[in-house]
Amino acid sequence: MKKITLEDILKSRRGESYQDQYDYIMNLINDGRISPVKSASTNGKNPPLPLRYWIIEDEADRSAYISELKYGLNYRISPDYYLHHLSLYEKDRKYVISLSEYLDKNQDALRIPVSENERSFDIWHLEKFFQKSSGFRILKNCGLGPEDMNFYTTQEPLAYYSASRKPGSVFLFIENKDTFFSIRRILIEKDGPYSILGTTISTVIYGSGKGIWKSIEDFESCVEEYMTDQRNTYLYFGDIDYEGIGIYDNLREIFTSSGRSLTPFDMAYRRMVEKAEAAGLDQMPFTREKQNRNIDTEFFRHFDSDTAGTIRSLLEDDRYIPQEILNVTDFLDR
Predict the structure, then answer these.
(1) pLDDT tens-digit profile of 48-85?
(2) Half-sphere exposure of 220 (CA within 13 A, CB side)
(3) Rounded to an integer, what distance in angstroms lies between the CA atom of residue 145 and that of residue 85?
(4) What's the sign of the alpha-carbon dihedral 276, 282, 285, 287?
(5) pTM of whole model > 0.85?
(6) How far apart are CA 108 and CA 150, in angstroms?
(7) Cα–Cα distance for residue pair 198/332, rounded to 1 Å
């Protein structure tokens, strides 16, 4: 049942006398359409009226829903949840019916895995119904899960440029697009692997911030074979702020779980700090609000004490160094 206030019930009757309003409320109560909330205060008038009411649903109107839930849906759909939430079933009914009809007619199709959006469109003619969480909610309410629908999720493909496909090379993950384009430009113009700040880079990969996490979880199947060779070296380079370090922390854990290692591109970070110090650390922008400050100390172990101390002080002052402080001229070996 739903609650409603006295004020909402009488919205359309504000011009009437209080006695007429009172009689109207009493008629609704006597007809079984509303019921006073026992703990509700009264309006202080004579005769008094409670300020809150339960809306009594017409069970006769919903008896058909009960029958449909018990006997009219595909056998794989559990009716239990919606039998206890008939008002929600009324809202979700068209989606539940579509799911039931799909299960009735497409058992063979369910044996073949397809993408999340493809399955969503097959069932509801809405390709992003799962992405909006509505599809998962409907499945759960019906006693089903994603595994019953036999679909897989797809990730954004990794954007990368390889100057060499030789196993045992150095791969550099970049947080931001501008820096990715700068280093990619150098590799293209030099027509092969090139020493970037003292390290010969063969492949540069655009991470797109936190978007890299999901793509890397499927690393083995979304990249070419040479990129997964155990002899490769993987480096990461991003903003010097809580979020940038946090992205590195999570990415490193994903790499570790697959038997690989990921370390910061230390020379690039040191170059960022040097340029920031030359410009004045107090000139660096302030950290964006609501960043997760829970970062691992592992990141700092890759730097000398002076560099690590400068980075810690900068973060404590709520400032950060964007990766874009460096440009093409900074990456070219002199």
Answers:
(1) 999 999 988 665 567 888 999 999 999 999 999 999 88
(2) 7
(3) 19
(4) positive
(5) no
(6) 11
(7) 9
Contacts of 71 (CB under 8 A, 6+ apart): none
Contact 6, 18 (CB under 8 A): no
Radius of gyration from C-alpha coordinates of the chain: 31
The CATH code that applies to domain 159-331 is 3.40.1360
Q: Say what angle helices 134-141 and 86-105 make with each other, to 10 degrees.
A: 90
Pull the structure tokens for residue 91. 């809202």
Q: Are 214 and 190 in contact (CB under 8 A)?
A: no
Q: Could you report the per-residue pLDDT of 141-165, keeping only the tens digit for each?
A: 999 999 999 998 776 667 889 998 8
User: Side-chain half-sphere of 132: how many Cα atoms within 13 Å?
Assistant: 10
Distance between CA atoms of residues 199 and 267, nearest Å: 9
Distance of alpha carbon 212 from alpha carbon 231, whole angstroms: 22
Q: At what angle do helices 86-105 and 116-124 cross, to 10 degrees?
A: 100
CA distance to 241, 245, 299, per residue, from 238 (Å): 9, 8, 12
Q: Summarize pLDDT for 75-97 with one digit per residue, the tens.
A: 999 999 999 888 889 899 999 99
Over residues 218-228, the pLDDT tens digits come to 666 667 788 88
Q: In sequence order, what are the residues at sequence separation of 6 or more whose Cβ sits closer than 8 angstroms to the Cβ of residue 129?
A: 95, 120, 123, 135
- Tokens representing residue 8 in the block: 């909402």
Strand partners, 200: 195
The average pLDDT across 306-316 equals 94
The residues near 164 (Cβ < 8 Å, ≥ 6 apart) are 192, 193, 202, 203
